[in-house]
């Protein structure tokens, strides 16, 4: 055993703009934001594969890809993701696809000489009743929220795999745990998406059709913390540059709203003038999950995009890009 467990400031990532960097999952919410950010700061050698070109659940294909491409850096943002309903309905998909993707990519990256890998998880890794705000060391201290425990167990395994490879091989694999994300390229599916894109779509469709009411799930009382994905992409680059520690790092906006407050804000931004109706047959999920992001703040990164500005930006993207 051995290897670095100090939170050393590596500082070599953004100095290597020609370095080959593989962004796994570049068509998704997170991966597309990371690619936008890398292009914006001048990276010239970004390697991308669509799902059709490379199925990350197939171990031999992933090994062949890494052996051929030999990227120097990897951002692991490919995952099977979804909102509370999708997590609750497809538990086998959420645990198996995520375990396969991350295990294949992390192991092949290590074996093929990748210098540094960043694994992305989610705030749902923490116990349902973790003390708030949730610090990194709350991991594995209590039972998970049942609606997303399958996804959470896979993501916890990813964190532990990065830690294990660091401990055994001294390999520089780090993990970032973002809070609930939103932004361009989100999934706006009516049932399977997360709450924010679901509400943008539902309020927009109600406005266009002249409906008098919009149904919102649950009681409206759960508290959630939302982070615009461009802020996350900025944090990902920051962590690749500055952080090489054993622990995963929380990435939050440090502000929480109730689902009711969120629904009122989306309603206002979209310009829907009717009423909200609450469907309490739908699950609320965890009552609160505000992350403590002070570790990241101490390292020197804070978010910049307010929820209102981020919502305006995301609704604009929806109007321009989603087939209406
Ligand atoms: O975004 P969401 O599905 O994620 O739901 P979670 C958040 C809250 O919004 C819940 C309520 O209390 C929902 O009941 N909600 C209200 C709605 N209307 C809607 C709607 O139309 N669609 C959705 N989806 N929710 C997910 C996890 O939990 O968080 C994932 O399942 C992941 O694993 C993600 O970690 C970040 O915050 O409850």
The geometry reads as: globular
Looking at how many chains there are and whether they match, the oligomeric state comes to single chain
Adjacency order of strands in the biggest sheet: 2-1-3-4-5-9
Alpha-carbon distance between the two ends: 56 Å
The CATH architecture of the domain at 17-186 and 225-255 and 289-305 comes to: 3-Layer(aba) Sandwich
CATH class of the domain at 17-186 and 225-255 and 289-305: Alpha Beta
How many DSSP H or I helices?
A: 10
- Main sheet specs: 6 strands, parallel
Kindly report the CATH topology of the domain at 17-186 and 225-255 and 289-305: Rossmann fold
Strand content: 5-15%
Structural class category: alpha/beta
Mean pLDDT equals: 95
The percentage helix is 40-55%
> How many beta-strand runs?
11
Radius of gyration over all CA atoms, rounded: 19 Å
Helix/strand order, N-terminal first: EHEHEHHEHEEHEEHEEHEHH
What are the distinct ligands in this entry? guanosine-5'-diphosphate-beta-L-fucopyranose
The CATH homologous superfamily name of the domain at 17-186 and 225-255 and 289-305 equals NAD(P)-binding Rossmann-like Domain
* Unreliable spans: 1-5
Features of this protein?
six-stranded parallel β-sheet; disordered N terminus; alpha/beta; 10 helices; 324 residues; three-stranded mixed β-sheet; binds guanosine-5'-diphosphate-beta-L-fucopyranose; single chain
């Amino acid at each position: 055993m051995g290897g670095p467990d100090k939170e050393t400031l590596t500082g070599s990532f953004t100095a290597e703009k020609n370095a080959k960097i593989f962004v796994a999952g570049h068509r998704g919410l997170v991966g597309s934001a990371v690619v936008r950010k890398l292009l914006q700061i001048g990276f010239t050698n970004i390697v991308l594969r669509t799902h059709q070109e490379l199925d990350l659940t197939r171990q031999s294909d992933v090994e062949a890809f890494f052996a051929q491409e030999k990227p120097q850096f990897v951002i692991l943002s490919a995952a099977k993701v979804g909102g509370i309903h999708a997590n609750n309905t497809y538990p086998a998909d959420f645990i198996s696809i995520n375990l396969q993707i991350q295990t294949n990519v992390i192991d092949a990256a290590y074996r093929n000489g990748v210098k540094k890998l960043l694994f992305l998880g989610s705030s749902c890794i923490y116990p349902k009743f973790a003390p708030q705000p949730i610090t990194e060391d709350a991991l594995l201290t209590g039972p998970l929220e049942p609606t997303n425990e399958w996804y959470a167990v896979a993501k916890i395994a990813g964190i532990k795999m990065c830690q294990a490879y660091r401990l055994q091989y001294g390999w520089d694999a780090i993990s970032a745990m973002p809070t609930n994300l939103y932004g361009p390229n989100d999934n706006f599916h009516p049932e399977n998406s997360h709450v924010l894109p679901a509400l943008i779509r539902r309020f927009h469709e109600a406005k266009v059709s002249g409906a008098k009411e919009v149904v919102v799930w649950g009681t409206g009382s759960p508290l959630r913390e939302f982070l615009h994905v461009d802020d996350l992409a900025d944090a990902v680059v920051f962590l690749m540059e500055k952080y090489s520690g054993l622990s995963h790092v929380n990435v939050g906006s440090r502000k929480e709203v109730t689902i009711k407050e969120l629904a009122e804000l989306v309603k206002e931004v979209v310009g829907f003038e009717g009423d909200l109706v609450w469907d309490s047959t739908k699950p609320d999920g965890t009552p609160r999950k505000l992350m403590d992001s002070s570790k990241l703040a101490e390292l020197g990164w804070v978010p910049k995009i307010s929820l209102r500005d981020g919502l305006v930006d995301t609704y604009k993207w929806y109007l321009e890009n989603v087939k209406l």
